[in-house]
Sequence to fold (308 residues):
Amino acid sequence: MTAKTLLLMDGAAMAYRAFYAIQNLSTHAGQPTNALFGFIRMANQLAVQWRPTHRAVVFDAGLPATRMALLPSYKQQREKMPDPLRSQFPLIEEFLRRAGIPALRVEGEEADDTMASLAALANAENAETLLATSDKDLFQMVTDRIAIVPPTAAGLRMGPAEVHEKMGVPPTGIVELLALTGDTVDNIPGVPGVGPKTAAKLLAEFGSLAGLWARLDAVAGDKTRAALAAHRADVERNVQLIRLRTDLVERLDWEALCVRPVPVEALRTFYQDMELHSLARELDTMAAAPQRPAPPPPPKPDAQMNLF
Fold:
C-alpha cells in the first residue's frame, strides 16, 4: 500500500441509500434521522474497513451546462428529492463538520466529476484512491492506484481486473461501452437493441468506437448494424456526456484531508441531540481503539472547506 490512501465518498448516493434502507427513525420532535444514521454508519464502516490516511465526502453542486446543452433531458426524469431526506442534509453536513471530515463540492458540477478530478491528482502523486460509490460512470477512472469500493463497506475492492470482469471491458473502455448502451439512471438513450453484452462484444471485436465505425459493414446482424448506423451521432454525443472531467481541481490540500482522531465529545453531544443513542454508546469503543499518531491541528473551519 502506498503511503497515502485517499477515501472519497459520494455523499448524495450514501444519503439516498441510507434513506431508503432504514425506515421509521426520527427524534421525538419529529425530525427524520434515518438518512443521517445510515450515512454515519457507512462513513464509520468505510473508515474501519479501508483505513484511509485521508478522506472527504463529495457532494453534487448542480448539473453542468455543457451536459445540459448536449442533452436537455439529461437526468430530468429523476423525481424531486423527498422532503424528509432533504431536511437531513444539513444534519449530515453538521456531522461531517464535527467529525472533521471535509465536505467538498465544485459549484455547478456533479460529484462524479469532482471525485474524478481529485482521484486524478492523487494518482499523479502516487497515492492510492478509493472511490466509495455505486455509480458505474466512475469505473472509467479505475487504475492500479484508483479502485471502487461499495459505500456499504461490505464487498469487493474493484480494480482493473474486477471492472473488466463485471463490465466486459477494461476501465479504458467504459465510456464507449456506456455510450453504446446509454444509461437509464442518467436518462441517456443508447442504441436500441444494444445492451451491455452486445456492446462489450462489439468493442472487443473492433477495438474501439473508431474501429467500429470504420468497419460498420462487418457488424453481424442486420438490425444491429442498422441501429448503429442510425444512432451514430447519439453515441458520439454520449461519449461527451459520460466522459468525466478531471480538471476541476488544481491541487490537493493533504493536510486538510488528513484523517484525525475521533472528536469524541463533539460527536457524543451531536448524537445525543439527534437521539442516536447507539452511536453515542459506540464512541467509547471507537475512542479506545488504537489511533494513528495525531497529525497537525486541522485548519480553521472556513478554510477547511476550501481544499483546492
